[in-house]
Amino acid sequence: MSKSSESLYWLDGDGIEQNDDFIKREILEYNKNGGTIYVGSDSMMNCTTCSFAAVIAFHSRSKKIAKYYYKKLKKRESKYKDVKLKILEEVNIAIQTAQFVLGICPDANIELHIDISTEKTNLTSRFYSLVKGWVDGVGFKLKVKPESWASSSIADWHTK
Predict the structure, then answer these.
(1) What number of CA atoms fall less than 13 Å from residue 56's CA on the CB side?
(2) 0.90 cut: is pTM over it?
(3) Do 46 and 123 touch, CB atoms closer than 8 A?
(4) Over the stretch 68-112, which tens digit does the pLDDT of each residue have?
(5) Where are the beta strands (DSSP E) in the chain?
């Protein structure tokens, strides 16, 4: 039996809770100005619990915008000790988050950031083709290390 707990609210970069209605308004306002919405996720295994973080980030140097919102999810399942299952759950969470954004704003320009690498020296590189096919198949643009800052920086920070 699996046990999980999920944040009921989105949290901003300062850890202040924001409800879905607030996030919806933020997405619509940012999209109206033509910005790309960056979605990422990451995870960290601690003994018997895996902490996942999903991120929605807005960034535009020209418009001087840099902010993000995140949700945390903890799953008490030993299966996430398997790096492939953990990566696939990260991708699943990122895709669900991107679909949440599309549900609010169907014309949103979304870039999915996944914390894997194409470098053969990195353990996660063996999953690149699988992840790329999945992300392409659901219609999102994919960024991986070193360009996947929404996952490898922001989401990573919030898995701790």
Answers:
(1) 30
(2) yes
(3) no
(4) 999 999 999 889 999 999 999 999 999 999 999 999 999 999 999
(5) 3-6, 10-12, 17-18, 36-46, 49-60, 65-76, 109-114, 141-143
CA-closest candidate to residue 155, choices 116, 119, 113: 113
Cα gap 55→98, rounded to integer Å: 9
Distance (Å, rounded) from C-alpha 121 to C-alpha 137?
26
36: closest CA among 113, 146, 95, 103? 113
Amino acid making up residue 117: S
Per-residue pLDDT tens over the stretch 33-49: 889 999 999 999 998 89
Rg, Å, the chain Cα set: 15
Condensed to tens digits (0 to 9), the pLDDT of residues 114-146 reads 999 999 999 999 999 999 999 999 999 999 999
